[in-house]
Amino acid sequence: MGKRLRKPAKKEKNFSDKIIKILSNSANKAFNYKQIAAILDKDDTQSRNQIIKDLKILAAEKKITESEPGKYLIKAVSQDYYEGTIDMTSRKTAYFICDEFEEDIFIPTNNLNRALDKDKVSVYVYNRRKGRRAEGEVIKVLERAKTDFVGVIDIQKNFAFVSTANPKMYTDIFIPKDNLGEAKDGDVVLVHIEDWPKRADSPFGKVTKVLGRPGEHDTEIHAILAEYGLPAEFPIEVETYAQKIDTSISEAEIAKRRDMRDTLTFTIDPKDAKDFDDALSFKKLENGNYEIGIHIADVSHYLEEGTILDDEAYQRATSVYLVDRVVPMLPEVLSNFACSLRPQEEKYTFSAVFEITEKCQVVNQWFGRTVIYSDQRFAYEEAQYIIETKNDVIPEEISLTGASYQVSPEIVSATLKLDELAKIFRKRRMNEGAISFDKVEVKFNLDAEGEPEGVYFKIAKDANHLIEEFMLLANRRVAEFIGKQKKTFVYRIHDEPNEDKLIAMQNVIAKFGYKIDFRNPGDISKSLNKLMEDVSGKKEQNLIDTLAIRSMSKAKYSTDNIGHYGLAFEYYSHFTSPIRRYPDVMVHRLLQYYLDGGKSADEELFETKCLHCSTMEGLATNAERDSIKYMQVKYMQDHQDQEFLGVISGVTEWGIYVEIIENKCEGMIRTRDIKEDYYTFDEKQYALVGATSNKLLQLGDEIYVKVKNADLVKKQLDFNFLRRSEETVN
After folding, report:
1. At what angle do helices 462-483 and 380-389 cross, to 10 degrees?
2. Residues of 201-215 as b/e, b for ≥16 C-beta within 10 angstroms?
3. Who's near 166: CB < 8 A, 6+ residues apart?
C-alpha cells in the first residue's frame, strides 16, 4: 500500500477578517501569530506566513496594535466599533442601523455571530471599498430584543427543534429532551431561548407554553399574541384585586365633583362596542352660545398608582383589538362596567367643557372631574341616520335594539348642531394643513365559532367625524393648557414626513397620473389631501392610501413636544381613551395634579413611560394586522375555486403582489408560476416584462387570479395568474 498523500491546505488569499474577529472577541488581549494559527486550525507553513504578513499589514493600517514585538491586540475602544440595532432581512442577511451612519451597514450571514432581529449589538465596520457598500460584523450582542418565540415543534428521539414562521428568524431553536414540557410532536409552542453555546448552530431553548395544534383558530390567535409578547388573560391576582374595587357612586364623591347629571348627555360608538370611553353633553346657553362637554371615563379614580392593577395596566399599555376579540388593558369589571359610560347610569368622568359660538370659536374652557348621566346610547349608524335624514325615528334595520324607536327632539337637535359644528372644525383643520386619512378598514362577519362568513369595509362618515372632531378638540386643548405652563406632560407627537419615502411614493403614484408638491411641509399636506380626494373610490385607492400612510412618520408619545404634523396642531395629547390607552391615564393624573397646583413632574420618568407605551402600541398594531391577515387567509381557504379580479399592488424580482378588489385580501404570484411568457423584473417601470411578448404586468394593472395556496400558519396567500382584465376567457 503506497504512502497516503496529504491533502493540500485550501489556499486563502488572506486572514485579515478572521484575525480582526479573533482580536475583537478578546479586546485588549495580545496574541502572537502561533496562537492565531492554532485558533484558525492552520498548521501549514504557507498559511502561517500569510498570517504573519496580514498581522503586519493590519498593524500598519492601524486596525490593530502591536503591543510588544510579535504580539497584537485590538483596544476595547475603537472608532471602528459602533452600537446600534440589527434589522434582519428574509434572506438571512441584515442591516446595522446606527445614528452615526447615513446609510445602514450591510451584515452578511456569516458575520451575524448569533445576532437576531432588533437585537442591540456592537459592530465592527470594515473600511469601505471604493464603489461598494460598507459592511460590518457583529462583535457582541449587547441586548436581546426578544427571547420568546412561537413555532412548531419537531420532536426527535432525544431532542427537538422549533421552527418559526417568522421570515426574519433565520435559525431554528434546539430543545433538549428535558425541556420539552407537555409538548407533542407538531404542536405550536412558545419557547424561551436560554443559551446559545459558542460552537452550536442553533440557540438552546425551553418550551414554556403549548398553544395547540397548527391551523386551529384559538391556537393561531394565541400564537399571534404570544409572538409579540402580549398576554391573553389577566393574572388571577389582578382579577381578584379588580373585583374588590368599590365601584359604587357615593354622595361624598359626587360632592367633590362638578355635577352635570342634569345636562343632556349621550354616547356614539361602534355597534359592537362594550367599553364606552367618551360621552358628549350639549346645552344651549342664554347668550346663544353652546356649552359642549367632552366627558371621559375617570379611570384614574379607580386605577390607583402603585397597585398590582396599575402595574399590569402600565405593562400592557393598550388594549389589543384582534379580528375576533379584544384583549383589554383593564379587567372587564372596569373596562365594560364601572368605567364604561353606559346609558341610564351615573358615572364618574374627567371632563373638558367648552363654551363655543355659532362660528366655532371657543370662548371659555374648563377641565376637571365630574359626574354625568348618559341619556342615550347611539351606534354610529343610528347617529348617521339622524344626520342624513333629520328623522327622529330609527328604523329597525339599523337599530341597536332590533326594533324601530323614536329619539327625543332634544337629542336629535343636539346631534344635528354638533354635526354642524364638527364640520366647521374639520374644514378649519384641513385649511390649516391637517391631512385626511380615511383609510378603508377591512372587517369580517364572523359566525358563532369565529369563522369568517363575509368581508365588509368600514368607512368613516359624518357621525364618525362628529365624535373625532370633539375628541380632537379636547385632546388639543388639554395639551395646550399644560404645554403653555411649560410643565412636564405626555404629548402625542408626529414629525414631518420622510422626504425619501415621499419621493419613492411619487415614483409609484406617477404611474397612475398623480403627483405630490414637495416645496414645503404645507404644500405637501395640501397635495396629499388632494391625492386622497382624487383616489377615493378608484381601484388604486387602497394601494395609494397605504403608501401615503407609510410615507408618514409614526406618531408616538413623548414629553418633548414637537407638535403633530398630520393634525396640524402645535399641541396635542391623548386624553379621551383611558379605558384602552395608558398614556391617557397618565394625562388624567398629570392634569389633575397640575389643577391642584403641583410643580412640574419628573420629565425623565415620564419619557421612559412614553417610550414603553409607544413600543407596546407598535406591538399591538402588529398583532392586529397579523390577525386580519390570518382571517383573510382563512376566508380565502373557502374560496379556492373562485376567480377574483385584483389590482397589482407590488412588483418585485421574484413576483407580483395582487390585492383582490372585492375583499382587500393580498397575495403573491411568483414569477416562475406565470406560464404565458418568461418574465423579468424592470425596476424603472415597476413591472414584469415578458421576454417574447414584451407584455407588461405593471403596478395598478387589473388581473384575474385564483387561490393557489392559503397558509394559515405563515398567514400567506399565493395566487395563480389567470389573465388580464381586458382579456376574454377562451
Report:
1. 110
2. ebbbbbbebbbbebe
3. 117, 149, 227
Condensed to tens digits (0 to 9), the pLDDT of residues 514-530 reads 888 877 777 888 888 88
Local structure of 176: helix, strand or coil: strand
Burial class (CB in 10 A: 0-12, 13-18, 19+), 551: buried
Return the SS3 of 293: strand
Query: Percent of the chain beyond pLDDT 90?
Result: 68
Kindly report the pTM of this predicted structure: 0.85
DSSP letters spanning 582-600:
HHHHHHHHHHHHHHTTPPP
- What is the pLDDT at residue 127? 64
C-alpha pair distances (Å), 33 with each of 13, 69, 72: 17, 11, 9
Residue whose C-alpha cell is 343636539: 414
Cα 221 to Cα 74: distance, rounded to the nearest angstrom: 49
Per-residue pLDDT at 8? 44
Q: How far apart are CA 33 and CA 36, in angstroms?
A: 5
* Cα distances (angstroms) measured from residue 428 to each of 360, 361, 417, 575: 10, 11, 17, 22
| pLDDT, greater one: 293 or 79 | 293
Beta bridge partners of 268: 378
In contact, 569 and 563? CB cutoff 8 Å = yes
**Cα–Cα distance list, 310 to 304, 314, 620 (Å):** 6, 6, 19
Q: Whose CA is closest to 167, among 256, 93, 66?
A: 93
| Among 176, 296, 330, 340, residue whose Cα is nearest residue 575 | 296
Q: What is the pLDDT of residues 535-554, one digit of tens each?
A: 887 877 777 887 888 788 89
User: What are the backbone dihedrals phi and psi of residue 238, each rounded to the nearest 5 degrees, phi first?
Assistant: -75, -45
Identify which of 95, 105, 96 has the alpha carbon closest to the alpha carbon of residue 128. Answer: 105
Q: Judge whether residue 3 has pLDDT over 50.
A: no
- Whole-number pLDDT of residue 129: 56
> Which DSSP symbol is given to 334?
I
Is 380 within 8 Å of 285 (Cβ atoms)?
no
Sign of CA dihedral 469, 495, 500, 552: negative
Residue type at position 240: T
Res. 727: pLDDT tops 80: no
CA 625/CA 721 separation, integer angstroms: 26
Q: Which helix (H) or strand (E) holds 535?
A: helix 521-535
Distance CA 300, CA 586 (A): 8
Phi and psi at residue 704, in whole multiples of 5°? -95, 135
Contact, 517 vs 527, CB < 8 A? Answer: yes
Count CB-CB contacts under 10 A for residue 193: 20
Q: How many residues make up the chain in this entry?
A: 730
Q: Which helix (H) or strand (E) holds 477?
A: helix 462-483
Shortest CA distance to 239 belongs to which of 145, 335, 166?
Answer: 335
Q: In this structure, are residues 407 and 392 in contact, taking their beta carbons and an 8 Å threshold? A: yes
